[in-house]
């Protein structure tokens, strides 16, 4: 029987490794205790062996793993130890090129259509590409193939579903037409696609990442293409550590990436000032609005491209990967970006995933509004609790900059982070006792909690702390549960801080 994690959350030790949601296509997994998150990062077999799911770029879905093994068994050559399937032949070719670039050898990978077959020395680089390019085959496409189906049979219905999704997304942005919306197999594929397009317009150009980023976006800039990227820190008041004009220099920059607000510190840069300084130097700006959503913030007027992970609020279900890039038709770079996007061999959201996502997008506005209202109430309540040391949320961080991009009818977003007096010990006690779903990702109908910095920055915890993201930070993606139930669960978890270990 399928477990309804909205009503029956996965939070106990016995829930370790359970998929979130209870689906073969789940995009998260339950890591119910503070220690289980550390053990996952350390690769402790007792934890890793229990994972029935995970974020698909990092924990390959079991259906996809089965497909990969079948491919290797049926089509592998002597000396090949692993196979990976991608969404299209261009993605497979990019993976092979990355392997050759990383290893300096062209005899370690073989391309066969949408797949690559790997010698042992190629596996590390190929898996790295899979994780950060975001264009691996999806679990729904893999299931079609494993069941003996043909993906082309879904082509017509899939295109209708993609058209429906593009129309809904376009309606969120003033002046945007559906053909200015590009759909990708994941949010990371959208970011990587934007990066490739911008790099094609300025080969060898460098990039600037503004503020503490979703780390995978920074890895795309530093490990793909020309591999030239700078990080511009933003302080608690939203001011850059170096003036935008000074950082952007003489304009030899292929693009600027920024999240509004950022994850997990929920800060907003002065987006108008950033866009103005970039515009003076003809630098395209890519703004990611995933965290707060296009329902709450309107960033298109300050961006040339807007990236969004549709896996999050647009889906709400947590069981489908997708992403988008929206071009600003009023932007000064629109014409050349449009030509470059249309000419690029960009990966596209597959038909089975589009068919699943399209009906979910109908509930986008209502879902975002309910979750944002809940988060605002929780944040205001938590700020008065003596156990809480700090709360990060657009209400508490650079509120003036967020207000400048907030829609007239928009909320303050449904993501926040917090720490406790007593440091990591208190965070662990709170986290372990919290009776809500615990795992990575965000933007689901159900509340989802994780020790974000431990999961995202385990190998660079000192660097993250220097930039204001401490290891004891707990990140909360608030869902649509009744607010009184959420507060009651937080209250019980706070009480656990005072109990003996």
3D architecture notes:
By secondary structure, the protein is an alpha/beta fold. 40% of the residues lie in helices and 15% in strands. The protein contains 19 helices and 17 strands. The strands form 4 sheets. It has a 7-stranded mixed β-sheet with strand order 6-12-11-10-9-7-8, sandwiched between helices. A 5-stranded mixed β-sheet has the order 13-14-17-16-15. Helix 3 (62-75) crosses helix 6 and helix 7 (155-170) crosses helix 13 (351-360). The protein is globular and about 60 Å long.
Range of helix content: 25-40%
Question: What is the strand content?
Answer: 5-15%
Q: Which regions contain 5 or more consecutive residues with pLDDT less than 50? A: none
Question: Which descriptor suits the 3D outline?
Answer: globular
A few lines on this structure:
By secondary structure, the chain is α/β, with parallel strands linked by helices. The protein contains 19 helices and 17 strands.
Question: What key phrases describe this protein's structure?
Answer:
single chain, 501 residues, alpha/beta, Alpha-Beta Plaits, Aspartate Aminotransferase, domain 2, Aspartate Aminotransferase, domain 1, seven-stranded mixed beta sheet, five-stranded mixed beta sheet, 19 helices, globular, pyridoxal phosphate binding, transferase
List the helices and strands and how they pair.
Layout lengths: L18 E2 L7 E2 L4 H9 L2 H4 L13 H14 L4 E6 L3 H15 L5 E4 L2 E5 L3 H11 L5 H8 L8 H16 L10 E4 L2 H15 L4 E5 L4 H9 L5 E4 L11 H5 L4 E7 L11 H10 L4 E4 L16 E5 L13 E5 L6 H10 L7 H10 L3 H19 L5 E5 L6 H7 L9 E6 L2 H11 L3 E2 L9 E3 L1 H5 L4 H6 L7 E4 L5 H14 L5
Parallel strand pairs: 7-8, 7-9, 9-10, 10-11, 15-16
Antiparallel strand pairs: 1-2, 3-5, 4-5, 6-12, 11-12, 13-14, 14-17, 16-17
Protein name: PLP-dependent transferase
Family: Belongs to the trans-sulfuration enzymes family.
Pfam family, one: Cys_Met_Meta_PP
């Amino acid at each position: 029987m399928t477990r309804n994690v909205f009503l029956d959350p996965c939070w106990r030790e016995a829930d370790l490794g359970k998929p979130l949601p209870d689906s073969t296509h789940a995009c998260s997994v339950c890591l119910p205790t503070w220690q289980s998150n550390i053990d996952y990062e350390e690769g402790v077999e007792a934890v890793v062996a229990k994972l029935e799911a995970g974020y698909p770029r990092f924990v390959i879905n079991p259906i996809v793993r089965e497909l990969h093994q079948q491919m290797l068994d049926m089509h592998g050559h002597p000396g090949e130890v692993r196979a990976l399937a991608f969404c299209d032949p261009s993605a497979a070719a990019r993976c092979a090129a990355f392997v050759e670039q990383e290893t300096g050898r062209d005899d370690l990978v073989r391309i066969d259509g949408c797949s690559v077959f790997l010698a042992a020395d190629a596996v590390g680089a190929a898996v790295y590409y899979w994780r950060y390019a975001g264009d691996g085959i999806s679990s729904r496409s893999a299931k079609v193939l494993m069941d003996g189906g043909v993906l082309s049979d879904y082509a017509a219905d899939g295109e209708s579903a993609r058209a429906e999704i593009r129309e809904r997304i376009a309606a969120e942005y003033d002046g945007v037409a559906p053909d200015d919306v590009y759909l990708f197999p994941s949010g990371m594929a959208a970011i990587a696609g934007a990066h490739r397009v911008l790099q094609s317009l300025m080969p060898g150009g460098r990039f600037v990442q503004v503020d503490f980023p979703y780390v995978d976006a920074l890895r795309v800039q530093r490990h793909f293409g020309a591999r030239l990227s700078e990080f511009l820190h933003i302080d608690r008041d939203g001011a850059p550590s170096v003036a935008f004009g000074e950082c952007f220099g003489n304009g030899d920059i292929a693009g600027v990436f920024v999240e509004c607000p950022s994850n997990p510190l929920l800060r907003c840069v002065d987006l108008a000032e950033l866009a103005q300084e970039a515009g003076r130097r003809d630098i395209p700006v890519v703004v990611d609005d995933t965290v707060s959503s296009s329902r709450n913030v309107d960033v298109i007027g300050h961006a040339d491209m807007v990236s969004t992970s549709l896996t999050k609020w647009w889906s709400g279900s947590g069981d489908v990967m997708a992403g988008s890039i929206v071009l600003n038709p009023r932007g000064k770079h629109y014409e050349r970006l449009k030509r470059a996007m249309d000419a690029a061999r960009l990966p596209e959201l597959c038909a089975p995933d589009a068919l699943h996502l399209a009906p979910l997008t109908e509930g986008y506005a209502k879902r975002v509004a309910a979750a944002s209202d809940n988060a605002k109430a929780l944040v205001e309540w938590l700020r008065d609790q003596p156990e809480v040391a700090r709360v990060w949320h657009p209400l508490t961080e650079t509120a003036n900059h967020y207000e400048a991009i907030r829609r007239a009818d928009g909320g303050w977003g449904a993501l926040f982070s917090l720490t406790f007096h007593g440091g990591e010990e208190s965070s662990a006690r709170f986290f372990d006792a919290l009776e809500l779903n615990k795992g990575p990702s965000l933007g689901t109908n159900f509340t989802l909690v994780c020790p974000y910095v431990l999961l995202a920055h385990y190998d660079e915890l000192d660097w993250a702390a220097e930039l204001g993201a401490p290891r004891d930070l707990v990140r909360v993606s608030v869902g649509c549960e009744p607010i009184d139930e959420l507060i009651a669960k937080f209250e019980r978890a706070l009480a656990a801080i005072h109990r003996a270990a």
